[in-house]
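debug: dumping io for the single-chain case to check the tokenizer round-trip. Nothing else runs in this session.
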Amino acid sequence: MSPRTVFSPYTRLFAVPGSLAFSFVGWLARLPMPMVGLGAVLLVAGRTGSYGLAGAVAGTLALAGSVLSPQWARAMDRRGQGAVLRWAMAGYLAFGVAFATVVVAGAPRWTWFLFGALTGACGPNIGSLVRARWAHALDAGPRQTAFAFESVVDEVVFVVGPPLVTLLATLIDPLAGFLTGIGIAVVGGWWLAGLRSTEPPVHVPEEGAVVRRFAALGPTVLVVGGAYLAVGAVFGAMDVVVVAFAAAEGAPASAGLALAAYAGGSLVAGLVYGLLRLPGTLARRYVACAVIFGLAAQLLHLVNSLAVLVPLAFVAGLAIAPVLVSGFSLVEARVPRGALTEALSWTTTGLTLGVTAGSALAGVTVDAVGAEASFAFPALAAALAAVLALAGVPLLRRTARGSSG
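debug: decoded output
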């Protein structure tokens, strides 16, 4: 069987009018996700020499984005992606430049936190907007392939973004790295806002819609988002623990190789998962993928050298994309169309909050027990994700019985 035949489901995706444009622009607009956070760390640390302060400022930026991005998504469900996205990107540009200005100028530290929070608050979750466009453009069958492709795009973002901002900060100035991230986000966001032909239709709330205000936070979103808190904690912990372990082994540059192997496993699995037509309901696939994710991460207990870490990271990474794709697919199928973008954003918020918490707790763990022993932290967080998914099975079953579609 030729590669062209094998990957024909992906080829058919981009036969949909406008899909190539909004998927590419969505990738461009997502590229600054890791760039802006890391750029803020490099900018603050470069000006103050304090990584503690830099982490606190970057964490404030990320937390504000996690909390506010679903609110932007709700507005987009009601008013359209294009109109709202332009306002969001205008604020992102203004507050991003203001943040860089107060840091470079040495303004009072509270202004750093203020403008960092305002910058993060103006950053909608672009991945959710793109997935909502796929859901609008495709029937149920091809959506798994589209969501799998977008999970691969997410991995590419986190492979390309950090080296790019680090290179700019090293060769030019940390300010250049941060502002480049802001600039790419604004260009991509405005470009996506202009692609009006593929954006989902606006859903105007009916009279008495107050009771539907939290339609995006239904049982399925709570179950998946809760498990994704633990999944995100795995991602955040891996970044910290792998870097610490590579430094302890005397080869800090190898951290990039190990993390690339982890992301590479997910990329490969995402491409394959999008081609499969698996049996069972969406809920069963999601729970099965969560359990496999939890089991695969237990391989991290075996890490005792960099030579062992790289292949084990690749194998553990194979379970990432399936649990993400299956979860997003389940949410997409269970949530009313008028609240879809917001629901996907809340799901991603679970991941983001988990990453923030996982990074902080993993750092404490490394300080307490050392880098090698700290691989137990992401392994246990992955096991918790599996447990939370299994615990949500009764609720998913009840929700399925009460659903009309």
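debug: round-trip ok. The radius of gyration is 21 Å.
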